[in-house]
Amino acid sequence: MPGEVETPTDPIYRLGRWPRALEWPRWDRVGDGRFDDPRMAPRYRVLYAGDRRACLLEKLAPYRPSHPGIVDLPITPSWIASRRMATFTLADPERRWRWLDLRSPATFADFRHRFASALDAFGYRDYDLAAASSDERGLTRPIGLWAYQKGYHGIRYPTRHDPDLNCWAIFSVVDGARIIEIEDVPLLLDDLDLRWVATNWDIPLPA
Fold this sequence. Notes:
Elements: E1 4-5, E2 12-17, E3 46-50, H1 52-60, H2 77-81, E4 83-90, E5 99-101, H3 105-114, H4 116-121, H5 129-132, H6 137-149, E6 154-159, E7 162-171, E8 179-186, H7 192-200
Parallel strand pairs: 5-6
Antiparallel strand pairs: 1-5, 2-4, 3-7, 4-8, 6-7
Helix pairs in contact: 1-7
């Protein structure tokens, strides 16, 4: 069986859009995310969150220069102004929620057989850390659907940009009353994690 992890007790972060970062995606937008419901008539939504720096790594990856000094997709003042960073916790006092752990060796062993055809179709020789952090939707969305149908409340997975950092895909079966918001604040240009990511990836930020 795949590995599981307990409900996190530490704060989790979500980089979202104005006016509220913790809004569930609209139903007409379901299907773009890594573990979104792949069916034509989706039955669940996914809230993507994670370690604070992991959120910024995931969101800023498309803005990396394609070549030294060549920026194809700039980060603009309006982009910054439209983003907010939420901090929240998950309330699971009886520890009943189930979270699929894509970091677990047990998951690696199980998924290399369970999803063998999808792995082969997308050029993976094994289910390992590379596959666990993949953003190949043809592989990840069937995993999300399988996890949802097996009763998991979400998925913990590593960001492909830093294997030490966690991301969380939270299924909408976890109702909003159990997501405890701590704060929801604007993303600022002097944000230390934003600056760290931009500096390491040579991403120019607006003045």
